[in-house]
Amino acid sequence: MVCFVLIAAACGSSTKSSGSSPPTTPTTTSKLSGALNVFAAASLTEAFKDEKTALASSASGLSLTYNFAGSQALVTQIKSGAPADVFASADQKNMKKLVDAGLVETPKTFARNTLEIAVAPGNPKHITGLADLEKSGVILVLEDASVPAGNYARQAFTKAGLPAPKPASNELDVKATLVKLTSGEADAVIVYVTDVNAAGSKVEGVDIPDSQNVIATYPIAAIKASKNLTAAEAFVDEIVSGSGQQALQARGFLPPS
Amino acid sequence: MSVDAHIRVTRGSFSLDVELQVADGEMLAVLGPNGSGKTTLLRTLSGLLAIDHGCISIDGKIVDNPATDTFVPPEERAVGVVFQDYLLFEHLSALDNVAFGLRERGAARSAARERARALLTEVGVDVHQAARPSELSGGQAQRVALARALAIQPTLLLLDEPLAALDVQTRVDTRRHLRAVLARFAGTRILVTHDPIDAFTLADRLLIVEQGRLVQQGRTDEVLNNPRTAYVAELAGVNLYRGRADGGEIHVGSEVIVAADAHAGEVIAIVPPHAVVLHRVRPEGSARNVWPGTIAGIERAGSRVRVRVAGTMSIIAEVTPAAIGALGLIEGSQVWAAVKATEVEVHPA
Amino acid sequence: MVVVGAVLAALFFVVPLVGLVWRAPWSSSWKVLSSAEARAALRLSLETSVAATALAVVFGVPLAWMQARVSYPGRSIVRAVTLLPMVLPPVVGGVALLLALGRNGLVGQYLDRVGVHLPFHVAGAVVAETFVSMPFLVLTVEAAFRSADQRFEDAARTLGATRFSVFRRVTLPMIRPSLIAGAVLCWARALGEFGATITFAGNSQGKTQTLPLFVYVTLEGANSDAAIVLSLVLVVVSLVVLVSVYRWLGTS
Predict the structure, then answer these.
(1) ipTM entry
(2) Half-sphere exposure for B168 (CA within 13 Å, toward CB)
(3) Buried-most residue among A113, B202, B251, C106 (CB within 10 A)?
(4) Mean pLDDT, to the nearest integer, of B166-191?
(5) Do B28 and B190 form a contact (C-beta atoms < 8 A)?
(6) Is there an interface between A and B (3+ Cβ pairs < 8 A)?
(7) What does the pLDDT look like over B235-270, one tens digit per residue?
(8) A51 strand-pairing partners
(9) Count of alpha carbons within 13 angstroms of residue C97, beta-carbon side
(10) How far apart are the CA of B189 and the nearest CA of chain C, in angstroms?
(11) Cα distance from C151 to chain B (closest Cα, Å)?
(12) Helix (H) or strand (E) holding B63
């Protein structure tokens, strides 16, 4: 698992160092203009913000705003008519809700992610794996089961043959979960590898072996009711096969396949 | 000496500086215009206000002495107070109001209520014992307030304008009743009022307070006959006579005042100046009281004129300026003063 | 003009409630209501909101009395601070509580040592609810103490009541309607609290997942209909209590 991540990161970083100009086609960039409201899963925060910086020079006519939250929260908002142009989810399950409701164009997978245990620097509670998280004396916080990461985490416990976890709290997105750890209230949390990377020295990661880990598949789609559908579709393409890929892999995401 | 007080206290721009001594079992009336400091005086005696200088002792015990840092709070003084607006507790029945003080002093609920019931019977409102204060009439509330203060068996009873909140008719009835109840109370009583009738009919001694200072004190007739200030003179302008009643007749010196009701014994007869009618010739009408006299003085009092008539029966009449003109009255004029028997207020002395 | 404004205001409150009723999935409602999680959330909400109100009364009434009757330097600052939770966004309140009473908090670090754990425990939910709702009680009761006629208290003292006895037997009964109104307001606020609870106490069924949290999570989960049904339950429970108390106040 660790090797896999390292290779992926190396690939990502090597692509980055080989050339500074992103592989966007001129036509894609010119369609990327106007106002665009992107609703994205919380775990995409850093990667998508990097992408915004990258697009600032090549697509100067684009006014990009983000709404980061748990995928399940975003689905509720979109179904209630929130003015989103693009939706990037952390799992298929939530995207399917919008597909079933006929609200989105055909989704495309744009990244994958895996889970990692995060603990305080120095690993004071000596966590070595999922089993340790269920020991008494360890305050574990997870995302709620309705959040993709929460669902994935619980799957991991099942895969590991362990009883269902009993977290002290069920947060509403990965970032809130991480906050419980960094503020000192929780001893251990389970978030994505990308979140552990993004938290830097504030947390320490403990790997989950491949056999127990879950691969999260991230789909993205343009919202049919978008007022700027051309730009929405162009943005989706940019993320799936354009500069977005570099941004994502630089942050530790796995490529879509 | 039941109450011995030298009181000096300042509240904002007002300052009170009086000395008073009240004997055991005596009834003192503190009389003064509004704002003269009467209520402040009561508050210092009851302990609701601490004095700045001086000393108050009640029943031989010093309760307030700033010089020695002595101060006995109200709850520890055996002083009962009947407040101007009665201040009955709205959330308690009349019975529980009266029982309040007893319960505070440790009595059990049933014992306290027993005693309270007895007191309410004494003041004549036991039928209303279960009523809330808001359901009581003014007169009934006044009696409950009195019973409540008496319940704690105080050595000193203070009454702050006890009849002021009542309408005129109720006031007359209640005053009579109050007199009777107070007469049965053995302790010292201090009554504060701005109504001279209250003072005359209820008290043995008067203390006149004006602008925070004691201006005169003594027995009622002594004070009225020798007024030292305009205020007292104004009070004296109420025609007040002490005499012996014999049926409907009251003998005042050598003269007789005919009253509408029959009385017996020592009484105070009061004739309001506005009820005195002046005639240039002897009138023949229904008025039972007709006295000759000479005008000794004419003074304007606002929109009225006060005419002092001297004679075997000295009396003050209040008339309009027009009447003076119409009758051509001047000092020295011979007049007849007529008063209907029904206008004579008689109070047992 | 005034009538139009009043009608609009009333509609502002009524329309969302009508929306809830209109969209409620009445057929599946029983299944939702009888689920263990829903019942746990409702019971927890009722327990914590009542506990929060009790705490608010025990601490809030003396505070209100002091603010109304005792003149001391800094009194207006204290008033501003004690009313702050009313204007703070609840989540901010939750963050403040964490910094003070969390595991590494200013005071919390010592609490932890003596075995008092607030985050992730029922007590934490109670603390969060008390924090946001107590100001409502203090505000109402302080105003009542201020306007209470102190002459009745004077009368009680002349009858022999000690200061504490006066407070207990005269002052408190005099402000009873305001005390009840304040407690009801406080309870209603505590019942509906979300932001401070989820931030400070967390979200755990049976321990800190009060009904508002459960509704929020359920809204996004597999069964969004359940959220509507439960919201209605909350509305009905609150309406019943509020109407009963105000009618009782009106008759007493």
Answers:
(1) 0.77
(2) 0
(3) A113
(4) 85
(5) yes
(6) no
(7) 766 787 878 998 889 998 888 999 988 888 888 788
(8) none
(9) 31
(10) 15
(11) 7
(12) strand B61-65
Q: How far is Cα of residue A27 from the mean position of the Cα atoms in its chain?
A: 28
Which of C209, C218, C220, C228 should one mutate to test binding to chain A, selecting the residue with the greatest count of A CBs within 10 A? C220
Beta-carbon neighbour count of residue C76 at 10 Å? 9
Least Cα distance to B23 among B185, B188, B192, B155 occurs for B188
CA gap B175, B187 in Å, rounded: 19
| Structure tokens that stand for C177 in this block | 């309607």
Please answer yes or no on whether C158 and B100 come within 8 Å at the CB atom.
no
Q: Which of C151, C160, C174 sits opposite B152 (nearest CB)?
A: C160
- Report the C-alpha dihedral over residues B116, B120, B126, B131, rounded to 10 degrees: -70
Would you say C98 and C200 are in contact if contact means Cβ atoms under 8 Å apart? yes
Segment C127-138 shows an average pLDDT of 95
Angle made by CA atoms C45, C48, C54, in degrees to the nearest 5: 135
CA–CA separation, A146 and A155 (whole Å): 13
When pLDDT is cut at 50, 70 and 90, the band that residue A29 belongs to is low
Listed residue (C191, C169, C181, C108) closest to C142, CA to CA: C181
Cα C102 to Cα A129, A133, A140, B191, C118, distances in angstroms: 26, 21, 15, 64, 7
Residues 8-37 in A contacting C (C-alpha not used; CB under 8 Å): none
How long is chain C?
252
Write the residue in C98, C204, C219 that is nearest to A169 by C-beta. C204
Which DSSP string do the residues of B133-195 spell out, in sequence order?
Answer: GGGS-HHHHHHHHHHHHHHT--SEEEEESTTTTS-HHHHHHHHHHHHHHHHH--SEEEEEES-
Tokens linked to C112: 């932890």
Rg of chain C (C-alpha set): 21
CB of A72 less than 8 A from some CB of C = yes
Phi then psi for residue A131, to 5 deg, are: -60, -40
Q: What is the pTM of this model?
A: 0.76
- The residues, ordered by sequence, that sit 6+ positions from A122 with a Cβ below 8 Å of its Cβ are A204
Q: CA of B186, closest CA in chain C: separation in Å? A: 19
Q: How far apart are the CA of B191 and the nearest CA of chain C, in angstroms?
A: 16
Run of H or E residues at B61: strand B61-65
β-strand partners of A217: A112
Asked if residue A191 lies in contact with residue A252, where contact means CB atoms within 8 angstroms, the answer is: no
Which tokens go with B135? 């359901």
Q: Taking CB atoms and an 8 Å limit, are C160 and B75 in contact across chains?
A: yes
Say whether residue C173 is in contact with chain B using an 8 A CB cutoff. Answer: yes
Pairing of strands B188-193, B156-160: parallel
- Closest by CA position to C49, among listed C181, C204, C218, C211: C211
In Å, what is the CA distance from C96 to each residue of A33, C109, C134? 42, 14, 16
Question: For chain B, what is the total number of helices (H) and then of strands (E)?
Answer: 9, 19
Amino acid at C95: V
CB of C156 within 8 A of CB of C165? yes
Confidence of residue B349 (pLDDT cuts 50, 70, 90): low
C103 reaches A (C-beta below 8 A): yes
* Angle of helix A92-100 versus helix A148-159 axis, rounded to 10: 130
First and final C-alpha spacing in chain B: 24
Give CA–CA dist C178/C169, Å, rounded.
16
